[in-house]
Amino acid sequence: MSEHEFSLNTATVIADPSGALWWPAERLLVVADLHLEKASAYAVGGILLPPYDSQATLARLSAVIARRQPLHIMALGDSFHDGDAAARLDAAVGERLRIMVADCPRWTWLTGNHDPAPPLGFGGEVHSEVRLGPLAFRHEPLPRMVGEVAGHLHPKIRIATRARRISARCFITDGLRVVLPAFGALTGGLDIRDAAIRGLFPTKPVALALGPQRVHAVAVR
After folding, report:
1. Alpha helices in the chain (DSSP H)
2. Which of 19, 59, 111, 132 is 20 to 30 A from residue 182's alpha carbon, by CA?
3. pTM of this prediction?
């Protein structure tokens, strides 16, 4: 498995192939946009999707936790798809989440637009924003910010090859800020050429595209 190390406002961080950001100096693991129980929310509206997204998301998170052994885990908002998501969680999946939070020395939930009041029954602390050294962590990126680590936009990159078009989740960064890919198993994506993403970077950023086992750095033209 191949990761990608880069400098972010003087901090050395790592883009993990799972879609998590790892800050070795702080033993901090950061994930964005888990959107737990998105499938069951769609089912309420009559759109039936396989109801295993929360289980798959937590399995992916558990795997990266086992590899990195973090002392602090931070979820950058929209961890729960809506205010009733916790009530819809399967009991076994909910218990798995409680154990994951309890086993980590520090777990931080940031508020998002989908979960402005994350449920308190799983443990951890809740904040709207956290600053650690040269980095500031929040859900939605703000204009002209330096050292920002954010989610919300679910960046994806589309690459045309001779054989086909490839679409992949990606980090996008200019070395001063980074927007993380959505970590959830059932999340869409916004093309990095969209104005909402493009407007965040006054200089040409780099997309760190997620492959099955490695992160690929792609210059954004």
Report:
1. 38-44, 53-68, 85-88, 91-103, 195-198
2. 132
3. 0.95
